[in-house]
């Protein structure tokens, strides 16, 4: 029986355990919302030295006591074998592997070895780089001895401006679900958003996609938090968020919905097959263009023409109410494949 049920399975608690009083206040507020697992980081991986790096072993007892006092299980991050030793010594119930650790197979293996002989369930955050293989590899190492493993989608590092602190790239957890359907996946909207106003809508998106639950950073006084202050919410905000979550299931739909889906899906199948025909026809023409370019000594990349194609399809997209960045992405792929065909023929 999975530990991470019922759906939505919720883990909540501060980014970091800061003091006995802080984790106790968080636990009291959170347990009133019905949540059964309390999180709190003891060792915080920080980009720059000198920031709050966690209270370490001292906090393990406070976390454990806060969990006991409120009837909640506890979870904390481990990044090496030493951390696992502390977790076992104080009876913390569950551990998570942080994003910076998941990307390092040496550390993941060290943690897997340190956990051998115990039944501690492990949560595996996605690595910072958007590589499903690294995430899957870490899960495989930890699940190798039959341990319960659950994935946590916390977004991905990217360079540049964005609404989010970490890009969601939803297609990566979707790929994980396809490859490892037996592994439950939670969403961590706090680290994706990086900003408390985004937590609710990200949580709702994750539920619409069929995630199994959420890991949310909750602090009794978020503005005073020693780490990740901007993204933490209060226990009262957590209660409001959980109360408003719209859930969807995966059970077979009724006869009427099933008939509607069948008919719409056969329309989609027909369109997909036309899309393939059109792409194949386009590629043939592109090949012919490639030959003309080669004979006349023209470069494959013709930036002026490419700009005008992009401008035209974007204008058409706007007329048809299609998202411009979606169409740009599709045509970037088409153009790349087309250039590759002209180069490699
Ligand atoms: C955290 O959960 O507080 C944390 C540091 O997470 P991540 O490893 O996803 O950055
Ligand atoms: Mn955090």
Mean pLDDT over the full residue set: 97
CATH class of the largest domain: Alpha Beta
The topology string of helices and strands comes to: EHEHEHEHHEHEHEHHEHHHH
Query: What is the count of β-strands?
Result: 8
- Span from first to last CA? 54 Å
The CATH homologous superfamily of the largest domain is termed: Aldolase class I
Q: What oligomeric state is this?
A: single chain
Residues in helix, %? 40-55%
* Largest sheet features: 8 strands, parallel, barrel
- Label the CATH architecture of the largest domain: Alpha-Beta Barrel
Strand order of the largest sheet: 1-2-3-4-5-6-7-8
Structural class: alpha/beta
CATH topology of the largest domain: TIM Barrel
- Cα-based radius of gyration, to the nearest Å: 24 Å
Which cofactors or ions or other ligands sit in this model? phosphoenolpyruvate, manganese (II) ion
Strand content: 5-15%
Which runs of at least 5 residues are low in confidence (pLDDT < 50)?
A: none
Layout of helices and strands, plus pairs?
Blueprint: E1 9-13, H1 20-31, E2 37-39, H2 58-70, E3 73-78, H3 81-90, E4 94-97, H4 99-102, H5 105-115, E5 122-125, H6 132-143, E6 149-153, H7 171-179, E7 185-187, H8 189-193, H9 196-209, E8 213-217, H10 235-244, H11 255-295, H12 303-319, H13 324-344
Parallel strand pairs: 1-2, 1-8, 2-3, 3-4, 4-5, 5-6, 6-7, 7-8
Bound molecules: phosphoenolpyruvate and manganese (II) ion.
């Amino acid at each position: 029986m999975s530990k991470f049920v019922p759906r939505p399975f919720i883990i909540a608690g501060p980014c970091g355990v800061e003091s006995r009083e802080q984790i106790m206040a968080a636990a009291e507020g959170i347990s009133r919302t019905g949540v059964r697992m309390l999180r709190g980081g003891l060792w915080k991986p920080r980009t720059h030295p000198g920031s709050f790096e966690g209270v370490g072993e001292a906090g393990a007892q406070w976390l454990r006591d806060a969990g006991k006092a409120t009837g909640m299980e506890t979870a904390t991050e481990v990044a090496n074998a030493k951390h696992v030793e502390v977790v076992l010594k104080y009876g913390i119930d569950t551990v998570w592997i942080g994003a910076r650790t998941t990307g390092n197979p040496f550390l993941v293996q060290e943690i897997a070895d340190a956990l051998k002989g115990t039944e501690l369930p492990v949560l595996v955050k996605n690595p910072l780089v958007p590589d499903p293989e690294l995430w899957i590899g870490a899960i495989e190492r930890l699940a190798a001895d039959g341990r319960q493993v659950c994935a946590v989608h916390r977004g991905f590092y990217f360079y540049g401006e964005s609404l989010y602190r970490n890009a969601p790239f939803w297609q990566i957890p979707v790929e994980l679900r396809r490859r490892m359907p037996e592994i439950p996946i939670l969403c961590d909207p706090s680290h994706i958003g990086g900003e408390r106003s985004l937590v609710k809508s990200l949580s709702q998106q994750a539920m619409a996609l069929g995630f199994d639950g959420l890991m949310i950073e909750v602090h009794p006084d978020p503005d005073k938090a020693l780490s990740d202050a901007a993204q933490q919410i209060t226990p009262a905000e957590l209660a409001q968020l959980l109360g408003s979550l719209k859930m969807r299931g995966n059970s077979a739909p009724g006869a009427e919905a099933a008939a509607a889906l069948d008919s719409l899906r056969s329309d989609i199948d027909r369109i997909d097959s036309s899309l393939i025909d059109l792409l194949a026809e386009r590629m043939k023409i592109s090949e012919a263009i490639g030959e003309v370019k080669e004979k006349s000594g023209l470069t494959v990349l013709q930036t002026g023409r490419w700009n005008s194609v992009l401008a035209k399809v974007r204008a058409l997209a706007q007329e048809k109410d299609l998202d411009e960045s979606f169409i740009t992405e599709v045509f970037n792929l088409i153009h790349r494949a087309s250039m590759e065909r002209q180069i490699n023929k």
